[in-house]
Amino acid sequence: MSESAAKPLQLTRATAFVEELVLVLVNYRIFFPGHPRIKESIQKVLGQVEELLGDGSSITLKVHEETLLFGEEPLVGASLSAARLIQRLSECRAGGVEFLQGIKERDLESFLAFLSSPPPMLKTYMEANRILERKGCGKIRFLRLSGREELENEEALTVYQDVMDYLQEVTIRACKGEPIPLAPGKERVAKVLRCLEEDPLSLFRLANYEQFDLLSLGHSARVALLALEFVRAHESDRNIQVRVGTAALLHDVGKSWVPVEILGSRKKLTPDQRREIDRHPLYGAEILAASKEMDPMAVAGAFGHHRNPGGLGGYPRLLAPAPVSNISRLLKVCDIYEALTAPRPYKEPLTPVQAWRVLLGMKSELDPGVLKKFMGVMGLYPLGTFVKLGSGEIALVVGQGREMHLPRVKLIRGRRGEALPQEEQKILDLSQEQKEKGIRISGTVVSM
Ligand SMILES: [Fe+2]
Ligand SMILES: [Fe+2]
Fold first, then answer.
1. pLDDT at position 3
2. For residues 381 and 407, what is the distance between their CA atoms, to the nearest angstrom?
3. Separation of 223 CA from ligand 2 center, angstroms?
4. Per-residue DSSP letters for 262-285?
5. How far is the CA of 22 from the centre of ligand 2 (A)?
6. pLDDT reading at 1 higher than 50
7. Residue 140 forms beta bridges with which residues?
8. Per-residue pLDDT for 442 more than 90?
9. pLDDT band at 215 (very low <50, low <70, confident <90, very high)
């Protein structure tokens, strides 16, 4: 068949495919997921995708100004009936979707169930992709929005996604008992460092959006960002900065060996289950020590990040006091700060100020010198925190100032709570503003 004859046929098939997708989304609202009507539709969609794929590696559906494109060709008719599909893609913060060769029924089932009711508050299409992968859908992925906001953060998004991909890969390998590679982790940490030097706010804001995940991947990435901010301020040797970041990224890798039923349990843990969780530092050290590119700093960080600086107390429990490594002292502070300020299914996040109070009260459990330096780097209001000013305006912390309680902020909302247009989002140095106009921070806004 000539290409010119093939094209209209392909577009007709693509239109039928979109219509079937729309129908499945409607069916999901009426029937339960395993219902024969839904199964039947999924089979039909699978046949259509396979036909459209032919020998090619992938097909894409993209949204451009309310119109669906198949590849680069507009599907004008299908777009009219596809409002729900376009709406769902936008809720997934996606500008389209790609179907890859080798797609199976399971991929489609997971994808369509997800698309029919995406979790609320997804912040990036990559977050949606990560959830999809966890649900066993490896052959369908969301594509990024082509809007300005996403493009501005593109570098940070790519870097962050690479880190999350690495953590996933490491977890899978550890679960299978395979050795884990450290070199790709170090490469990614080096990229994170470059990104932190150029645009730290984007990375911190992205990391804040991560939702709770069972295997603590978001937690590990955030702990790494905190440790990197610390080491950037106190150590100029790039190699050490990278090693600290990698140790932080992998500090909880031992959790891969703890059964998920225990990690995800919402009930009070039995003493045996608690003991199993408390073994994750030992498991982590064992996993990291078996790595071909073993780094003693990573092994020490995984082993000691729940130990007390005095050498006794915390876990793993030792029979006699033993020195606690510097990396463990740092990771313990970062780990607890992250856990306190992040949302979990069972608790609201603390504001940074509340978290500092808790940390300052943990006398013998933390190294006071490390904690003081860490607070100095992060400031009372760390990067990416939303604060309320005495004037009633809401602002975003975009950098630290000369004093830890007076950061640099960007105005986001006006006195009556109205969102400010871009051109009115002024940057204020609060040490200056306080001196000149008496403007100060009156509180923290947990989420916007
Ligand atoms: Fe841990
Ligand atoms: Fe941790």
1. 40
2. 7
3. 7
4. HHT--SPPPHHHHHHHTTHHHHHH
5. 42
6. no
7. 99
8. no
9. low
How deeply is 416 buried, as exposed, middle or buried, from its count of CB atoms within 10 A (0-12, 13-18, 19+)? exposed
SS3 of 17-73: the string is: HHHHHHHHHHHHHHCCCCCHHHHHHHHHHHHHHHHHHCCCCEEEEEEECCEEEECCE
Max mean pLDDT range (245-259, 383-397, 418-432) = 245-259
Instruction: Say how many Å lie between the CA of residue 285 and the centre of ligand 1.
Output: 11
Report whether 383 contacts 204 (CB < 8 A).
yes
Q: Domains plus CATH for the chain? A: 3-146 (no CATH), 153-378 (1.10.3210.10), 386-445 (no CATH)
Which of 275, 221, 230 is closest to 249 using CA atoms?
221
- What burial class does residue 326 get, using C-beta atoms within 10 Å of its C-beta: 0-12 exposed, 13-18 middle, 19+ buried? middle
Q: How many residues does the chain have?
A: 448
pLDDT digits (tens, 9 = 90+) for 219-245: 999 999 999 999 999 999 999 999 999
Q: How far apart are CA 324 and CA 340, in angstroms?
A: 23
400: Cα within 13 Å, side-chain hemisphere: 16
- The number of CA neighbours under 13 Å toward the Cβ of 42 is 20
CA nearest to 224, candidates 251, 205, 201, 199: 251
Spatial separation of the C-alpha atoms in residues 206 and 416, rounded to whole Å: 27
pLDDT band at 4 (very low <50, low <70, confident <90, very high): very low
Distance from Cα 335 to the centre of ligand 2, integer Å? 5
pLDDT for the residue numbered 209: 56
Give CA–CA dist 40/81, Å, rounded. 21
What CA–CA distance (Å, rounded) separates 229 from 207?
13
Q: How far is the CA of 236 from the centre of ligand 1 (A)?
A: 27
Distance 161 CA to ligand 2 centre (A): 19
Report the side by side order of strands in the sheet with 386-389: 427-429, 408-413, 394-399, 386-389, 441-445
**271: its two tokens:** 């003493």
Residue with the two structure tokens 């994808």 = 111
pLDDT band of residue 7 (cuts 50, 70, 90) is low
DSSP element (H, E) containing 447: none
> pTM of the prediction?
0.68
Q: 220 CA distance to ligand 2 centroid (A)? A: 6
Looking at residues 185-201, what average pLDDT do you find? 92
pLDDT at 448: 59
Q: How much distance in Å is there from the Cα of 248 to the middle of ligand 2?
A: 9
Spell out the residues 6+ positions from residue 114 whose beta carbon is closer than 8 angstroms to its own. 128, 131, 132, 135, 137
Give the number of C-alpha atoms closer than 13 A to the C-alpha of residue 9, restricted to the C-beta side. Answer: 9
